[in-house]
Amino acid sequence: MKREEWDVSGDTTGISHIATPGALDLSHGPILYLESIQVDFDGFKALNDLTLTVDAGELHCIIGPNGAGKTTMMDVITGKTRPDSGTAFFGQTIDLTVLTEAQIAAAGIGRKFQKPTVFEALTVHENLALAMKTDKSVWASLVSRLSSEQEDKIDETLRLIRLTEFASRPAGSLSHGQKQWLEIGMLLMQEPKLLLLDEPAAGMTDEETERSGELFLSLAGDYSLIVVEHDMAFIRQISRKVTVLHEGRVLAEGTLDKVQADERVIEVYLGR
Amino acid sequence: MKTSALNTGSRKPSLARRLFGRQGGWAILSFAAFTLVVIPALNLLVPAESAFHLQIHWVSLSGKIMCYAIAALALDLVWGYTGILSLGHGFFFALGGYAIGMYLMRVIDPAGLPPFMVFLDWKDVPWFWRGTGNFLYVFLLVPLVSGFLAFAFGFFAFRSRIKGVYFSIITQAMTLASMLLFFRNETGFGGNNGFTGFTRILGRDITAPGTRVSLFMLTALTLIAAFCVSRYIVTSKLGRVLTAIRDAESRVMFSGYDPLPYKLFIWTFSAILSAVAGALFVPQVGIINPSEMSPAHSVEIAIWVAVGGRGTLVGPIVGAGLVNGVKSWFTVSFPEVWLYALGGIFVLVTLFLPRGILGLFDGVEKT
């Protein structure tokens, strides 16, 4: 059977593990499967038998004390760190443990770092143009010019992240909160299916935090989001489902009220 | 040349206007007029006894400095724009010089062998020098060999994600190792004397003023072409990706770009440009030897770029011109203090002009 004839809608069973970026199979609901992930840094188990499932269109919050493995988990999903054992699948078919960072990004996973990383020497507009989903080969970049649809898309994103009047300013001149938003805008330009946001509200004013919350809520549904956060008020604003990580494994899962009432979570957060 | 498109009105910005703006276009035209018309005329047409006659010595010196400017431009593409500091660009420069040097050695006596091979009692040229009596072949050899070696070196270095100071050290080692190899008599590169004693190029007397002025003009044209192509590259989206790699490589990767082909492209292009500069340099100075590959030479190229202003295209050209202008004055007047002066210039620029001389004119020149 040729690849084009493979049924990626999931109606047939038995064909899986197509390590090809692009064909995301959401037929069973979840967009991300992490199963028994183990990451060992010279004896320190950063992730210890971590199993986590994220449904398509879900806004999933991850909390946990320092060193719980939140960032390492992001690294595994984006291909920066290879797990020592365990499986990580994007949809039903895309094996994240064999793809490179660029391939994973092209497959539809966008990541925002803890510290905002934008291209400081380039303008806000250029930052968004670079991030846009398009042919990213050397030759294409050498000859490419923006089409009017692409310009429209950039304008639309600029409005969404409220940076329209800063479009031609160098990104390095933005405030901390604005950089966070620019980075989120850059993620959206990639048209990802799954967004990983590492402390997106860090360093933002209360007003900016609330606006970010509104933005994320409006994105959920069209996108799947994983948000790692410490700010409980922010999580209360946005969360539907919360997972608590501790020492590299899942400690509790459910609504915020449910996990906050969990004995073990209280113990981890408040000490025994 | 793109300059002819400068006057096509304002309907749609022409390629030349987009790349250089109005001022930049005129600056390039003036530079072209000066190097392609004024200087040749002052040497060839103005009689030697006139006060306006330009001695051939100055023409060749300017030609030599323009070769350095091309090499500096090449280094700036990888260092200033992409953040990859190569301290081995002198190696590629020398490679181009050796290729053209071998052609010049072969045409001294087309029927026999170059003198150093006769001296070593060789019966035939080594396999890798075969065909070098043909100018066209050598003309292709310069970009192909430098490009291939740079590609191979870059592929392994960038694939292993070697960056920053580690990369710089490896490039120093590369040029040092090559220098030691080229120093040996039996490797076929003329030992520590290198190649010299050239007499003719393309059938013409290499020391005749007409030939030397032609080489000068060819160098000026190459510099202009290299500048225009570099300008096209850095203003394209590719150029912005390179800047992005310099500033936040991991973000580039998470944006779906593989930095490897981008780095390889600019690295290989830069190496070829250096080799072309070396190929233009050797016929004008009349010698190529392994000292051209010494690590200090490569460090000097980086100093020109830093002095002029890295991350700009005009900066390296200004830096190469200025430092070498000062150098030729120093080495005539006080040869023993030149290295101290060079070190002093570098320290002063690093302390007070971190963005080089071009940084002084911020806002005027933002290329």
How many helix segments of chain B? 13
Order of helices and strands of chain B: HHHHHHEEEHHHHEHHH
State the total count of DSSP E strands of chain A. Answer: 10
Question: How does the helix and strand content of chain B classify structurally?
Answer: mainly alpha
The largest sheet of chain B, given as strand count, sense and whether it forms a barrel, is:
2 strands, antiparallel
Question: What Rg of chain A, in angstroms, do the CA atoms define?
Answer: 19 Å
Q: What structural class results from the helix and strand content of chain A?
A: alpha/beta
Report the sheet with the most strands of chain A, covering strand number, pairing sense and barrel closure.
6 strands, mixed
Amino-to-carboxy terminus distance of chain B: 20 Å
The CATH topology label of chain A is Rossmann fold
Task: Give an account of the 3D structure.
- The complex is a heterodimer of chains A (272) and B (367).
- Chain A is of the alpha/beta class and 272 residues long.
- Chain A has ten helices and ten strands.
- Chain A has a single domain (26-270), classed as Rossmann fold (3-Layer(aba) Sandwich).
- Chain A has helices at residues 70-78, 101-107, 124-131, 138-143, 148-160, 176-189, 206-219, 232-238, 256-261, 263-270, and strands spanning 30-41, 44-55, 59-63, 85-90, 94-95, 109-112, 194-198, 224-228, 241-246, 249-254.
- Chain A has a six-stranded mixed beta sheet, sandwiched between helices.
- In chain A, a hairpin with a 3-residue loop joins strand 4 (85-90) and strand 5.
- In chain A, helix 5 packs across helix 6.
- The radius of gyration of chain A is 19 Å and the shape is globular.
- Chain B has one domain (23-294).
- In chain B, 66% of the residues lie in helices and 2% in strands.
- The A-B interface holds A 78, 80, 100-102, 105-106, 110-111, 113, 117-122, 126, 129-131, 133, 136-138, 141-144, 186, 190 and B 233, 236-238, 240-241, 243-244, 246-248, 250-258, 261-262, 265.
